[in-house]
Each structure stands twice: as C-alpha cells, then as structure tokens.
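S2.1 Query sequence (SSS family solute:Na+ symporter)
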Amino acid sequence: MTLYINKKTKTYEDYNVAGRSVSIFPIILTFAATGVSGTTLLGYMEYGYSLGMGQQWIHITMFLCVIIFAAFLLKRIRSLGEKHKMVTIGDYTALRYGEKARIPTVISIVFAYCAMSGMQFVAIATILNVTLGVNFTLGIFIGWVFLTLKTYFGGLKTVIWQDVIHGMMLILGVILLFAAVLISAGGWGPASEYASSLGQENMLSVMNITPGEILVYLLTLAVFQFVRQDLWQRVWAAENSRTAGSGYLISMMVAVPIGVITVAIGVLGRYGLRLEEINPVFIYYGVVNDVFPFALVLMMIIALLAAVISSADSFILAGASSIVNDIIRPNASHYDNQKMLLWSRLSVLIISAAGLVLALTIPGLVNLMVTGTAMTVSGLLAPIVFGLFWKKVTNTAGITSMWAGLIIAVFWQIAGHPFGLHPIFIGLPVSTAVLFTVTILAPKRVSARA
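Output structure tokens follow.
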C-alpha cells in the first residue's frame, strides 16, 4: 500500500498534509489510530498491572483536554490553517510572533516527536523479544529500519489510509481482549475480592494516585493535545472544518475508552487472572496467552503491531515536517515541489535517527513519552494558547516565553528533577510568567496577525 500510494504523492502538501482532502471515515480512524499507540497497549497495561486503577487519571485528564480542544481550539486552528495554508505549528507561531519564533518551536516539537518515535521502536523491540526471542537492542534497530523506510516512502496520505485498516484492527482487538479477560476472570467482583484478601483493595480504586501524579499527567500527556503537531496536521488535512471537528470528536469517543479498557485489563490480569509471577513489562503477552488459543494470540500480536505502526509513522512525519517546513523551506524559497518533497523524506531520516538514540538511552515506554511531551508543553503551551485568544501578547513576549520554558525544562530534566519536581512544574509556570511579564512591560509591540 505504501508504494502504491507513494505513486500518487506528487507534491509537498500531499506528503505533509495529505492534499487537504481527507473525508470523514478515514479522518476518524486516523485520529483514533494515532491516539491509541503501542504505548497504550504496552505501557498503560503495564501501569494498570503495577499501579492499579489510579492510572485511569491519564484518561480522565486526557478526556477533559479533548473536550477543551474540540470546543475552543479546533475551529480556530482549522480557520488559520486554511487561510494561510499552514503545514506545521511553526507556521502559526511565525505568523503570530514573527519568523524568529520558528526556531524554539522546531526544537520543542522535534524533541517530543523524536521521543515519541523512539518509544515505538522500543515497542517493536519488545514484541520481537517476547515473540521471537530477538535481542532487545537488535529489535530496536529492526523497528527503526522498518518504520523509517515505511514513513520515508509514504507521507501523510499513506499514513491515513493505512490507519483505516490498522484502526479497525486495533479497536476490535482491544474490545475482544477485554471481553475475554472479563469472562475468564468471572467479572470484576472476584478480582475485587482477591485484591481485598491480599490487603490491596486500594489498587482497584481510581483514587489510588497522588495529586502530584495527576498533575504530571494533566500537564504533559493531556495538555500536549493542544500543541500536538500530528493532531494539528490532521485538522488541516480534513476536506473541510466540519469533517475535522466531527472526525476528531467521534475518534476520541473511541480512543479514550480504549485507553481506559487497557488499564483495566492490566488490573484484571493481576487480580482477576492472577498472573502474579510475571514481569509487568510483559503483561500484555501474559494476558493474551492466558485467555486466547494460539490463533487468536497471533491476531492480538498483529493488533499490537497495528497500534505501533499507526503511531510511529505519524510521529516521525510530524517531526520531519517541522524540519523541512520551518528550517529548510524559509531558507530555500526557490525550491520547487520535487526538491521540497525530497527534503521532506530526508527529514524523516533525521527524526528517526534521533528517535533511535533516545530509544537506546531512555528506559520505559511511558517515561519516554512523558519526557518528550514535557519539553514541548513547557515551551509552547502558553504562547500558543494565549496567542490564539489574546491579541495583546507581544512578539517579544511569545518568543521569550518559548525559550524560557524550553530551556528551564531541559535543564531540570538533565539535572535529575531537583527537589523531586517534574520539569513541567518548573518549565510551564516560568514560560507563562515570562509571557505575561514581557507583555505587560512592552504593551505596544503587538502582533495581531493571528
């Protein structure tokens, strides 16, 4: 399919925003397939098994931000993108704060998507290690080569149409697995009784989580939706505003419950199926092997691969778009469509290589994603959200806010979270404070273009 659709990818916009012509059915499934990644099935299930139902706050905070995005941000983003033919978030920040805003935007976006791409290489490696006994490091390299080549030759058109297939496989697979686990466990009641007999009934409570952990999820994974480039690109790729809005809402009504179910499967695996002698990292495979015959086990491995592939190519492409659109294009306005198409593909190689390095150096699927999203949220959330609705924010305030939040968050991460504080608790407040302070001190330098 990749090679077939590649023949129809003729222009720069075809490759990066699917020609801005995607209809309602594929847009729903591409939103859903991208939202439910390999991390959802592996990382969230592992968290459910190890930490309990309190991890549902990942999805509670996510759903809150989905509603906010759909109600207040989506139409504004679509309108600006349609009017100015935007390809990346960098196009917006350049319009709002001037061309100098592209650089901190690119750095923030690229950091997140390199981390999120690396996360999918780790997921592929885990699958190969468990199913075929492949060395974990070798598995990361295999995942890297496969996903890089697929994205290089594809582009967003290919990604979206493959998401149609992968999305349906994934949704049906998770629902089938949840039903099988519930039946095998005898329902939620026996699991609750067993947890109580162990003195661990708190593991089945949604409140089994600290306020600090909830805030980390809210300010990283959840609000990342507001500055998520692959999401913005799909909003612009839809054939019209109504398709974008309806497609996003419908898809999230599916994707968020799939995440909730996944955490619940992890909990049921521990207390319903009583899979206690297992490495939490491998709980997905343990559950699948426990409730399904071999043929269905293979089907569930394929569903997992579908989740990884659907997200990986989207993440790699989103990061690559920032490089080609916000670094190459502004400095090479004389390039024609074919040269820009070539640079789009070369940028895919750059992002995937950086993702490979992160996959080899940062352990843990969810940790890798949280680290990447924290950097982006720290640098971009305040200037983007306030810039969309508050015309008084100045160019200087916006750019300074981006650099301040990003630099502080990166420093805090490298320093090892001093005082036990996550980088998001430092970077985002600093970015917001700088934006307000500089705007108030320099009220006359206003950019109202956006």
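The two ends are 38 Å apart (CA to CA). The chain is about 75% helix and 0% strand.
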